[in-house]
Write a structure and sequence with these properties.
Order of helices and strands: HHHHHHHHHHHHHHHHHHHHHH
Largest sheet: none
Number of domains: 1
Number of helices: 22
CATH superfamily: Hydantoin permease
CATH class: Mainly Alpha
Helix content: 55-70%
Distance between the termini: 19 Å
Length: 464
Amino acid sequence: METNLPDYVASSKPVPKDARMPWFKSTAQTYAGIMLWFVFWQDIPSSGASSAAGVLANGLGVAILGVIIAAFICHFACYLAPGLMGMKTGRSLAVVGTSTYGVKGGFLMPGFFMGVLQFGWLAVNSYFSALLVAQFLGSDQGSTIHMVIAIIWAILAVVVGLKGIAYVAKVATYLPLIPLVILLVLIAKTIGGVGSFEPSQMGAVPEAPASSLSLILLIIAYTVGFFATAGAAGVDIASSNGTCKDVHMGGLVGVAGVTIFTGALSLLIVAGTYGSGLVEGGQSILNPTQLMETIMGTGTGKVFMLLLAVAAFPPACFSSFIAAESFKNTLPKVNPFVSCGIGAVCAIGLVLSGKAGDAVGVFVFIGASFGPICGAMTADYLLSGKQWPGPRSGFNPAGWISWAVGFVVGAWGTLGPMLGVDFTIPCPPVAAIIVGFVLYMILAKAGLTSRVLSMPEAEAEAAA
């Protein structure tokens, strides 16, 4: 093997062995904070379904089954291989990704692209967090107050993410407890009505129900789309773990476990609210946060809104921090305030246009973008004997081709109508993962991978 490494790879240092932590102090905690974010679980009952009862149209059991399947897909197909490579190398996603996309391609994918997509997360976070604050103040969605708060929210998150992430991280250790407590209080107030729930209470049309499979696929598409970037970031998150068991347990608890917990509670809260008769017949409100005033009363409901918004601020800062780190690696000569400032302007544009309010659409697009990355990295890991193969030269063809095709598949719901093609791909984010995985396998076995470059330090560590 020959050595021709760019500085960002050659100078990278693994997380020291004595700095590694068990899963319950690192991986599980980090992912639990992500999956407890209210913007994720509040849209589980709708998941983009057209029915008045959302994914509850065929009953609670079908919807919860969809959440369980989605949770394990997130763990096994999105997180596990990146997490194991992160643990075994102790290195960042920007470095580990060079085996799949090459040392030149790694600058763009997943490095730069990870940074760009963080502003999609920031836009959604700002939009919905500001909405809760605006509603606490008595203003409506889309109002001037809502938009002004969202703009200020995004700007503050970028500033704090760039300058004060260490302080935010300390606070973020405890703030995820807020949505946890709120979910438990809401379920305690509504659990008595779950047994009496019927989709018809939400204005559903029982004569023409959607198929159970279609509803399950909607839940999976929404959940996997939301989680895709966090799955690839498992390289960074699990690099602080010391053993394979830590990686597995961190994912099973923090990813799969907490996803099932928050998703199922969200569904139960909506079902229990209607089953208890707290909402007038025929109304269709699928969002648990919008039902809080009905469940708890106006005063307490508004306080809950404000608390959920406060708890969502650290994730906004972390998104900005991840973007800044990505841009520092890929655009080292550009001041991060400039690159992140441009990203913040784009995020604000998504907010003002209202596109950030379509969380399902945003997350499906993110899934289309990062789903093939997760699939290809998993294939790369398995083909290399469950090890990180090391950096590859230039642009690795197998990685880039598998990503391009996977992205088209994942984004087909948008691209198809634009091209005038009347063909639907079911569950696009998962289809994108599968295409990324299978195509990388085929192309790699056909010899369409660039040469592996020598990384002496990594080889010495492996030998030891």
